[in-house]
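If your schedule permits, I should be very grateful for your opinion on a structural question. I would ask you to consider whether the tokens describe a fold that such a sequence might reasonably adopt. Thank you for your consideration; the sequence and its tokens are set out here.
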Amino acid sequence: MIKHTRLENLSMNLVTSQPAQPRSAPAVRVRAVSRSFGARPVLGGIDLDIGRGEFVALVGPSGCGKSTLLRALAALDPQTTGELDLPAKKSVVFQEPRLLPWKSVWQNVALGLPYRRAERQRRAERALEEVGLTHRASAWPLTLSGGEAQRVALARALVRDPELLLLDEPFGALDALTRIRMHGLLAELWQRHQPAVLLVTHDVDEALLLSHRVIVLSNPVPSGPGATGAAPQPLGNRIVVELNIDIPAPRRRGHPRFEALRKILLGHLGVDEDDGVGAASHELTRMTPPFDLAPAAPESSEQPRRALKNFALG
């Protein structure tokens, strides 16, 4: 049996403002959600609530089903079983921006909006202003830097005023400095729009800096043999730990409670920071300055980006 651990009231010095507490019915209610690929169970009966306006981060080892769960919440996987109570208005931002290269930036943001052209453009330009890209509204996607392209993807998601914002490692392909800027921008946009958020990430620091609650998805195997003496069979991944992080801004990596929470999460992920590589990596992380929640400055890079082979709305 897998123990589900909930850690309450952990004091921290936080980077982002405290997310709103859940109001009345949750924005997302998941019960006994499972998904298998052939004979391999990936999700093994997930139960999860996300409150309205709550920011939740989901971490776990590679291959444990984080993106599979996110796709289920995005209603992109009809093979998922279980109970999924989801809001009608939801948006997804993927690791790749997935912009259509034959449409301008504002047209990518407005893609699918049910309005006349003038109103679509007005809404798209307003969303681009929120992410600091008004000056790039008429640019082509191939002329954007990586950070600019991902900001366009964020604008495209938020222009729809979603009740649920799903983020599938949206900053994983960005360089370290751009990622820091994007963290600040995301925090600011969340504060302004207040959607429920599920952020899938491999970055424990990112999860602790941005979220109201961090949950860990793990792929446990029964500890003993079955009744017939056969080898134990995988059960599918489950949520095994929840950490509530509920004190106000600003969050800073150097705070002792941040260090304690980081160790808890890394321990559940099977990472020992006391080895040389982990210690050196963490020392670099500690050098990162605290967030400035001002809007991110426009990026100067104009390096063309290669066209993606596959495209999908974020």
Q: What stands out?
A: The helical segments are 66-73, 105-110, 117-130, 146-158, 176-193, 204-210, 256-268, 276-286.
